[in-house]
Amino acid sequence: MIATRLRRCTQLAALFPKCPDFRLFSSFASAPPLPSSRLLSPSYPSQLTRGTCVIFPKHLFSTLSDTVPSTPDKSTFERLYVHGVVQPQIDRVVCNNESNSGKDAETNPVKEKDSEMEMSGAEKEAWWLLNQSVVNYCGSPVGTLAANDPGLCNQMLNYDQVFIRDFVPSAIAFLLKGEGEIVRNFLLHTLQLQSWEKTVDCYSPGQGLMPASFKVRTVPLDGNSEAFEEVLDPDFGESAIGRVAPVDSGLWWIILLRAYGKITGDYALQERIDVQTGIRLILNLCLSDGFDMFPTLLVTDGSCMIDRRMGIHGHPLEIQALFYSALRCAREMIIINDSSKNQVRAISNRLTALSFHIRQYYWIDMRKINEIYRYKTEEYSHDAINKFNIYPDQIPSWLVDWIPEKGGYLIGNLQPAHMDFRFFSLGNLWAIVSSLATDRQAEGILNLIDEKWDDLVANMPLKICYPALEYDEWRIITGSDPKNTPWSYHNGGAWPTLLWQFTLACIKMGRQDLAHRALEVAEKRLSNDKWPEYYDTRTGRFIGKQSHLYQTWTIAGFLVSKMLLQNPELASILICEEDLELLEGCACGVSKSARTKCSRKAARSQVLV
Fold first, then answer.
1. H or E segment and range at residue 483
2. H runs (alpha helix) in 487-526
3. How far apart are CA 258 and CA 494, in angstroms?
4. Mind listing the pLDDT tens digit for each residue in 216-269?
5. Ramachandran sector of residue 270 (left: φ over 0; alpha: ψ -120 to 50; beta: rest)
6. Which residues contact residue 397 at a Cβ distance below 8 angstroms, ignoring those fewer than 6 apart?
7. pLDDT of 483-528, one tens digit each?
């Protein structure tokens, strides 16, 4: 059981002196101002005095917020939100109804072009559905529902919540359209949730953990049936399948924060003390020392988009690609000073080691498979070729005939004596977007997708992984999961939301033809099929057997792909180009001896892989 506290947001409509039901709780009037010296203390919110005020059910307003004075008068209450956790820096911006959309529109060409272009019927429907999925908190938009399927209103499970990973394509769609307020609010509210005290069966996870999702609930105010308040109810993994913490949430949050700044020009948000602290808390979790010998991030099964048991525990490619991207983004945004310089140095060192490790050991093509086929095992030396003691018999029979002569990909996972040869789309695509893969490798990945189009795209882009686990493999690895049956859901299902990431990768490598081709396939079906979450069967012909309809990130992914192909220059808000400075760092692994000094020349040679 996880113990957290709901974040309360209490709205004060106005003062009604003649109203017999009006009551002002003295606990609010005595609330102390927030000491600036304690802004950096993550544990401080739990020590604050909560302000309380009445919500009149028939008179709810969204009002402006100002910093709470130590002795408020009546005029103060007429224009005030009172948040359960009093943090003026955050509340002043998050609950402010003054929109930044005007500023965004000036710096964003998409909004002007949209008015000139004739949108298709599918696009118009998608925008209407996306706007319908918006969730409001205290009168301001803070995210989008995971799905808004009217046919399953009583069986939504957690699909009626705002998921961090699911909201990312929605956020990009709003940013490209010039609507930045919802993204700013989302970033700041989830930042506040990060600092909460969390306990799972008497154990507390790290302070930087971001929730997987949150839900806005309306509850009676202190047991009063006539007054209500809105609260944010987060899920840090205590309600998830398998009770797994979402490792990717914090990584996506950092990536989205950078994208928001680049497209709106609102870099002041990144520079705020609370935001800088949030970035560093996430990085502290990711960069903490452990027993692992590798620069990759060690995670358990189900800690990312594939949130069920699928045999990805260890060092899955998806997490490594997002980890690398988040480190690159954080390196740009962290303000360097005496307190942060050591962490910035640690980021640079980790980036160098991680890029070398993935490029060197995760990449396979025909040449590499033939090399593994001839591996000697049980080597004990610093000069070993088969460093992970991979047995050649691990090469699956399907791979020998499937891998094309020209092209390759990054494998799904690498651990001692184990290589997961499955192709995972998100990890490979984000490795291209973040420049974790070299240009040559990125071209090889797109060449493979082009060559194996009928396997990876077919009737709906894009397979989440290939091939599916079947027979004994499915029973042993998934535990006979009835939702992850072969060619369904995470086990080889086709997920249309991956379209926007595929588009980004294609734009970066100058292969827009592939993105247009995939978008054309998707556009023929998505609207008629009511925007499903995923598709089943080997070629993606059927709507998923347990797929929710009107899935928000399916809708948003389609819109983002459309807008990026119309304005490919805007892909730069998410793309990271190769950083040669990182290649000047440590590259111990390419030396003949692991104990010799690093070679800068060897590090730079990674670009040529």
1. none
2. 499-508, 512-523
3. 29
4. 999 888 877 788 899 999 988 877 667 788 999 999 999 999 999 999 999 999
5. alpha
6. none
7. 999 999 999 999 999 999 999 999 999 999 999 999 999 999 999 9
